[in-house]
Every structure is written in structure tokens, then in C-alpha cells.
Write a structure and sequence with these properties.
By secondary structure, the protein is α/β, with parallel strands linked by helices. The protein is 29% helix and 19% strand.
Length: 227
């Protein structure tokens, strides 16, 4: 049974209103504090409200059943369907409620949903049929979860109303195979969706160049003029 995740880490500007909200999900085995330094680093450049939730602890099959913070149980990282779908859907319910809470807290403020690795995968799974308008999705070192024979995208997804996507992946990633990410990129492009894709000479991590590209993308989504 999936336990309720504990309270999120919040990073937001002081003395000025945030330009947007980004709900950002950490990777397997980490917690909401994992991306807190990056959120604080970007705050002076782009004043946004960062909501960094903690995943609950659960046994993870690919790690020998060892309990650890996880958004869902992983059974095989070589396939887009190598997951326990019940745990995926339980987390989706939680993420949807979190997005609704943020919309109620800041009506009219643009909302982004994103994450790293497992957090990126669940963001892609939740973002295209979110219960509130999503300005954009950020998927760092992740991929599109998909049941066998399916695309992983909602059946009735309309490209003209779908959120924009920033997707980045390391060429040397030895955790999430680059082929999984590039296959997801191709599926998303073929669906006619707005995607900005970047690959980087890095392992399963985040690079300064990737963060720079992400900030520029966020600024464009918010209509901020790049100098």
C-alpha cells in the first residue's frame, strides 16, 4: 500500500511574487531535498515557486525488493512497460491532487510539472492529462511510461492544447538507457506535440549546460525576453 508522501520542500522568492509554480519530482532513492540546491541556485535568475515533494518508501523490485523512496515500483529499466502499474496510478492520484492544491493556492499562476529520472517518467505520465492547465513539462533523464503496444500518451490528446515539453538526456546514461528517452522523443514528435529535445555528454545526472537550456526554455514559456 502506498503511504501518503510527507510534506513537500518549498523554495520560493521572498519580497516578490513568483512568476510560476514548478512541481518537481526527485529520482529513485532520493527525496525532495535532492533538487533544493538547484532550485535555490535558479531563484535569483527566475523567481518561481518550487514544490519538491518527497516520495514514500516502498520495496523496489530492481533493487532486490529493498524499500526506498520511490514514485512507483520498477521491474525492468530496459523497457517502457517495466513498472508496477498499480503503484504508478496511485502516485498519479497524489500528483493530480498536488497540482490542484497549487492551482487553488495561486489561481492564474502558470504551473509546470517536471522531474529527474523516475520523477521525469511520472511527470510525463501525469502531465498530458493533468486536472489543471499545465504550462509545460520538464523531463530530465526520463522516458515515457507505456504499456506494451501503446504509445504512453492519452488517446484524446490534442496537440494544440497540450503543454510544451523540455526533455534532456545524457549520452552516457547507464541507468535510464538513452534509447528509452529517444524512443519517447520520437513518439512525442510523431504525435505533433511541442518538444524541445537536448542530449548532453554526461552520465545519469544534470549538467550546468542542461540547467542553462532549461532556464532559457522556461523563460520562453513565460514570455520573458532573452537578453
Amino acid at each position: 500500500m502506498l503511504c501518503e508522501p510527507v510534506k513537500s520542500v518549498i523554495v520560493e522568492p521572498t519580497g516578490t511574487a513568483p512568476l510560476a509554480v514548478i512541481v518537481f519530482l526527485h529520482g529513485l532513492g532520493a527525496n525532495g531535498h535532492d533538487f533544493e540546491p538547484i532550485a535555490r541556485q535558479l531563484l535569483p535568475v527566475l523567481p518561481m515557486r518550487w514544490v519538491l515533494p518527497h516520495a514514500p518508501s516502498m520495496p523496489v523490485t530492481i533493487n532486490g525488493g529493498m524499500p526506498m523512496p520511490a514514485w512507483y515500483d520498477l521491474t525492468d529499466l530496459s523497457r517502457a512497460d517495466g513498472v508496477d502499474w498499480q503503484s504508478v496510478e496511485r502516485t498519479k492520484i497524489y500528483i493530480r491532487s498536488l497540482l490542484e492544491e497549487e492551482q487553488a493556492r495561486n489561481p492564474g499562476l502558470p504551473i509546470f510539472l517536471g522531474g529527474f529520472s523516475q520523477g521525469a517518467a511520472i511527470s510525463l505520465h501525469c502531465g498530458y492529462d493533468a486536472p489543471v492547465p499545465i504550462k509545460g513539462i520538464v523531463a530530465l533523464s526520463g522516458y515515457l511510461l507505456a504499456k506494451s503496444g501503446q504509445s504512453g500518451l492519452p488517446a484524446q490528446l490534442a496537440p494544440e492544447t497540450a503543454p510544451a515539453l523540455f526533455m534532456g538526456h545524457g549520452d552516457w546514461d547507464d541507468v535510464v538507457p538513452p534509447a528509452l528517452a529517444s524512443n519517447s522523443r520520437d513518439v512525442i514528435r510523431e504525435a505533433g506535440l511541442d518538444i524541445e529535445w537536448h542530449n548532453y555528454p554526461m552520465p545519469h545526472s544534470v549538467s550546468p549546460r542542461e540547467l542553462q537550456d532549461l532556464v532559457f526554455w522556461l523563460m520562453r514559456q513565460l514570455g520573458i525576453q532573452l537578453v
